[in-house]
Design brief:
359 residues; mainly alpha; flat; transmembrane; Secretory carrier-associated membrane protein; SCAMP; cell membrane
Length: 359
C-alpha cells in the first residue's frame, strides 16, 4: 500500500511493500546524479564565520569550538584546521614558500656583504702592517671601547707596576672630581654657595677628568714605553707637577677671591661647620669626604712621581740628558762658525749667536 501525495506525487512505502509497487518523485537520471555526488561530511566542511554589523567575522564560543575558536564536530571527527591562505577565526595566513625563499635570499646576500667588508678591512690591516703601521683595536673602556689601552702588551714588564699606580691614581682623581662637584652642588642648593661656584665646579670636573687622562696619564704611559727618554719623561714631570699642585689647592681650598668655594676643601669645610644647623653639618661632612679623596690623590701622585723619577734615572735618563747637552754644545759651536752664520743671515736674515750661554 502506498501513500499518495498531492498532485499524484508519491513516496516510498512506509510499512512493508516492495520496490516494484512503490513510486518515487525523483526520476532515474536525477537519482544517478545524486549517487555520483555524495554529500560532504559536516566535519570536512570549514566553518564559515558569522557576519557582524561591522563586517568582521566573530569568534565562536560554543561547545563545538576549541581554544582558538576552531569548530569541532559532535562526533569523533578531527577538528577543522583553517587553511593558511585564508583568515579563519582570527588565524592569520602564513607566509608562502616564495616569500620564505625571498627572505632567505636576502639574509644570504647580507651575510655575503658583511663577509666581503670584513675581508676588505683585514686586507687593509695587513697592508698597513706590512708598511710598518700597526692597527690597534679599541678595547677601553669595556662598556664602550673608544681607545686602545693595554698595560701588559705595551709597557715593559719592569715598568708595569708604576703604570698601574698611575692608572689607579687617575681613577681616584676621577672620583675626587665627581665628589667635589656633588659637594659644591649640594651646598649650592642648600643656599651655602653661589651660582658661579656651581658653574666653575662643573667646568673643573669635566675639564679635570679629560685633562688628567690625556695629559698626565697618557704622558706617563708614553714615557714608560721608552728607555729613559728625556723628552717623554720631562713632559710627564711637568704635567704631574701641575696635577699635584692642583690636588694640594683642592685639599686646602684657600679663601682667595669670590670663587674660592668651587673646591670643597679645608677652609670651605670650616665655613660650613661655622654656619651651624643641619645644612652646615651636611656641607661640612661632604667637604671632609672630598678632602679624604683629594688627600689620597695627593699621596699617590707623590709616590708615583718619585717612583717614575727612579725609573728614569736607572734607565739612563741622566746619561741621555748629558748626551743632549753635549749635542747642544756641538750645535752651538757649529753656528758660531763664520761661514754658517753668514749663510744663515743670507737665507733667514739672521743667525744664532753665543751670548755667554754655556751648554
Amino acid at each position: 500500500m502506498t501513500s499518495l501525495g498531492w498532485g499524484g506525487v508519491g513516496g516510498k512505502s512506509l510499512i512493508g511493500g516492495s520496490d516494484d509497487d512503490s513510486t518515487t518523485a525523483t526520476p532515474p537520471q536525477a537519482q544517478q546524479k545524486q549517487d555520483a555526488q555524495p554529500e560532504t561530511p559536516s566535519w570536512a566542511t570549514p566553518p564559515v564565520p558569522a557576519p557582524t554589523p561591522s563586517g568582521k567575522a566573530t569568534k565562536g564560543k560554543g561547545k563545538g569550538k576549541g581554544k582558538q575558536g576552531q569548530q569541532r564536530p559532535k562526533g569523533d571527527a578531527p577538528p577543522v584546521v583553517p587553511v593558511a591562505s585564508q583568515t579563519v577565526d582570527g588565524v592569520e595566513p602564513g607566509p608562502s614558500q616564495r616569500q620564505l625563499n625571498t627572505r632567505l635570499d636576502d639574509v644570504a646576500r647580507r651575510e655575503a656583504a658583511v663577509r666581503q667588508r670584513e675581508e676588505h678591512i683585514k686586507e687593509l690591516e695587513d697592508r698597513l702592517k706590512e708598511g710598518g703601521i700597526q692597527v690597534k683595536p679599541k678595547n677601553w673602556p669595556k662598556c664602550k671601547p673608544i681607545l686602545y689601552h693595554d698595560i701588559y702588551a705595551e709597557i715593559p714588564t719592569p715598568n708595569q707596576p708604576v703604570c698601574k699606580a698611575g692608572y689607579y691614581c687617575w681613577m681616584i682623581s676621577v672620583s675626587a672630581y665627581i665628589m667635589n662637584f656633588l659637594t659644591v652642588s649640594i651646598q649650592f642648593f642648600m643656599g651655602q654657595g653661589t651660582l658661579a661656584c656651581f658653574i666653575f665646579a662643573a667646568l673643573a670636573a669635566v675639564t679635570g677628568i679629560f685633562c688628567s687622562w690625556w695629559t698626565v696619564y697618557q704622558s706617563l704611559y708614553a714615557a714608560l714605553k721608552t728607555n729613559g727618554g728625556s723628552f717623554a719623561y720631562g713632559k710627564y714631570f711637568i704635567h704631574k707637577t701641575i696635577s699635584i699642585l692642583w690636588a694640594l689647592w683642592t685639599f686646602i681650598a684657600p679663601p682667595i677671591g669670590s670663587l674660592a668655594c668651587f673646591v670643597a676643601g679645608l677652609f670651605v669645610m670650616i665655613d660650613q661647620f661655622s654656619v651651624g644647623g643641619s645644612k652646615g653639618a651636611v656641607g661640612g661632612t661632604l667637604s671632609i669626604i672630598n678632602m679624604v679623596l683629594w688627600g689620597l690623590v695627593l699621596l699617590l701622585a707623590l709616590y708615583e712621581i718619585i717612583w717614575t723619577f727612579s725609573i728614569w734615572k736607572k734607565g739612563g735618563g741622566l746619561q741621555d740628558l748629558e748626551d743632549q747637552q753635549r749635542n747642544a754644545s756641538t750645535a752651538a759651536m757649529v753656528f758660531q762658525n763664520d761661514t754658517v752664520s753668514s749663510a744663515a743671515k743670507r737665507l733667514f736674515g739672521g743667525a744664532p749667536r753665543d751670548d755667554g750661554i754655556k751648554f
